Amino acid sequence: MEKQINTGKVGIIGCGFVGSATAFTLMQSRIFTEMVLLDANFEKADGEAKDIAHGIPFAGQMKIYAGDYGDIADAALLIVTAGANQKPDETRLDLVHKNVAIYQSIIPQIAEQGFAGILLIVSNPVDILTYAAVKLSGFDEARVIGSGTVLDTARLKYALSEHLGVDSRSIHSFIIGEHGDSEIAAWSSTNVSGIPLDDFCEMRGHFNHEESMRRIGEKVKNSAYEIISKKQATYYGIAMAVKRICECIIRNERSILPVSSIMHGNYGIEGVALSMPAIVGEGGLETHVPISLNEEEIRLLQHSGKTLGKIVSDLGL
After folding, report:
1. Sequence-distant (≥ 6) Cβ neighbours of residue 263 within 8 angstroms
2. Nearest 5°: phi and psi at 25?
3. For 157-181, how does the pLDDT look when each residue is reduced to its tens digit (9 = 90+)?
4. Of the candidates 177, 154, 163, 178, which has an alpha carbon nearest to the alpha carbon of residue 236?
5. Handedness of CA 304, 305, 310, 311 (dihedral sign)
6. Through-space distance between the first and last CA atoms of the chain, rounded to whole angstroms
7. Were 83 and a residue from 8, 99, 147, 307 both cysteine, which residue would form a disulfide, CB within 3.0 to 4.6 Å?
């Protein structure tokens, strides 16, 4: 039986780099009034909860504690960051079998609690694990979303803002497809406050558009690899991306974010999860939003879907 939802409560499963950074970010955000942390190592979760809770006097009242699966049943939102970390020279897809096995343990336990909130998948490879979470939980697909390319899109906006010398919040652009090596920068629909990208570039003294787009796209795609090679993990950026998704859901903002969800025929892609812009609100994913893509971008998006589809078919979920 589904439990009644406590709209002020969030649960985080996995207290590694990403989980603990997310917990710290959410504590400061004041989106929630209660946060429960779960980890295979209870002492780790308890230590993180106590450490983060000591910042409450600087941020505002909140209840933070380590718990078990029984404590997450009434959470409005459950964030899953548990899984093996990506190592230097390892792709996100290389993690798939390790982390699907972990999800086969975690997700059924969530479903058994009668959890009725939104399940937000953050572990990598996020698209495969979003698909796995839907299949293993039996939840309505709208309630299971992956953090997808929300962070990649932020990285793209940051890189473009540096290139153009303009506020990143004025840049409207998306990374779509896999959160990984086959991701696509949707250049054809990119604009700066309604001004087409090429026109704005020329206004700022940049004329070598194709080379600049190629360089910036590669920089964004490889940024995680660069950070992992230097500090072993990425966690601050994704923590902020998760906070943004949480805001949209808890405040029912209906913002458009490129979250990961299972596709059903959009652009000819069927039965795999990947990222496309979608309206996100209190029910999770409300609807996909069609953006204008050129023929090459559609071809690359379909290639991304096929890349993920091969892995999904091998999992037998």
Report:
1. 269, 270, 271, 272, 273, 274, 276, 305
2. -65, -45
3. 999 999 999 999 999 999 999 998 8
4. 154
5. positive
6. 24
7. 99
Distance CA 177, CA 259 (A): 10
* Residue 122 identity: V
Domains detected in the chain: 6-146 (3.40.50.720), 150-315 (3.90.110.10)
Residues carrying an active site annotation: 179
Q: Copy the structure tokens of residue 35.
A: 């946060």
Closest-CA residue to 163 (of 121, 116, 198) = 198
Tell if the pTM clears 0.70, that is, is over it: yes
Place of tokens 């959890």: 115
Cα–Cα dist 121/245, whole Å: 11
For residues 285 and 259, is the Cβ–Cβ distance under 8 A? Answer: yes
- Those residues whose C-beta lies under 8 Å from the C-beta of residue 205, and which sit 6 or more positions away, are none
